[in-house]
Amino acid sequence: MKKRIKVFAPASVTNVSCGFDILGFAIDYPGDELILQIKEEPGVVISKITGDHQRLPFDPLKNTAGVSLLSLVEHLDFKKGIEIEIHKKMALGSGLGSSAASAVASVFALNEILGKPLSKDELLPFALEGEKLTCGGSPHADNVSACLMGGFVIVRSLSPMDVINIRTPKNLYCTIVHPHLEINTADTRKILRKQILLADAVKQWGNVAGLVAGLTSGDYDLISRSLQDVIVEPIRSILIPGFHEIKNAAIDSGALGCSISGSGPSIFAFSKSKAIADKVGSAMMKALSTIEVEGDLYISKINQQGPRVME
């Protein structure tokens, strides 16, 4: 058995406009890097955290990577010790699945170093344990599923767990602007309406069905028509300065559609070519600069692989 492994787990875009808590996809970058080493002394130790290290706990019971890893260690009845280093390559509260990436990286790394005793489907519940820390015990599986499985996922059910990968157009690109703001996921869930109009629900169901159909068939016009969120975006966008200006800039530059990534503040847009995605990115960043907020720009195809071994 190897003693050391280094892995990368990607960021993810979730909700994907109309698909609140059920749609998500992985992107190539950013993401988290994690180093796992096997030790003789039993127990899980987090020895190093870089990136947002000042705000992340070293206690495995309070860290998403640690909690997920501990649950897998118990399931596998693994008797040796484990030391991990977490290298955060994206900001906390970005809306890009930062906590999910750490959780996925830890269970993926242990599974790999042990010779893959579990499939990715079987790893999912353990990664989900980490997400419970950030969601008050009621996790949503869209970030974790997209990060772990790769590609574009539908979370049909949490109990029983039922996650489906769907195919997407080969030339579909995602442009993401991450404003240097932080939004707490738990807070953004509190402001959502507990009840919605049936008419709005029907519109949303139609858009979800249309988006899935458009993605699987490669119908860009249908994808564009379906990228509309009539329930969550109107509320959460209030918390993101300049959201509507950035969204309008993306669409005016040729994007198929634009919405909030996760709970924000990151904003994503779909395009049907790299050239358009680049143009959209420039327009979105220009719109962001008008409100005097700095940000990061990422342009990626949908990451079909998910986590990977680096060394």
Describe what is shown at a glance.
By secondary structure, the chain is α+β, with helices and mostly antiparallel strands. Helices cover 37% and strands 26% of the residues. The protein is globular, with a radius of gyration of 19 Å.
String of helices and strands = EEEHEHHHEEEHHHHHEEHEE
**How many domains, in number, for the residues?**
2
Q: Unreliable stretches, pLDDT < 50, 5 or more residues?
A: none
User: Per the principal axes of the C-alpha atoms, what is the gross shape?
Assistant: globular
Summarize model confidence as the mean pLDDT: 94
**Helix percent band:** 25-40%
Distance between the termini: 14 Å
In CATH, the architecture of the largest domain is 2-Layer Sandwich
Structural Rg = 19 Å
Largest sheet: 7 strands, mixed
CATH class annotation of the largest domain: Alpha Beta
Strand content: 25-35%
CATH topology of the largest domain: Ribosomal Protein S5, domain 2
Number of strands: 11
Number of helices: 10
Structural class: alpha+beta
Please tell me about this protein's structure.
This protein has 311 residues and is an alpha+beta fold. The protein folds into two domains: 4-166, Ribosomal Protein S5, domain 2; 173-301, Alpha-Beta Plaits (2-Layer Sandwich), CATH 3.30.70. 37% of the residues lie in helices and 26% in strands. The chain contains ten helices and eleven strands. The protein has helices at residues 64-76, 98-113, 120-134, 142-149, 185-190, 198-217, 220-226, 233-236, 243-252, 274-289, and strands spanning 4-14, 23-39, 43-50, 81-88, 152-158, 161-166, 173-179, 257-260, 267-271, 295-301, 308-309.
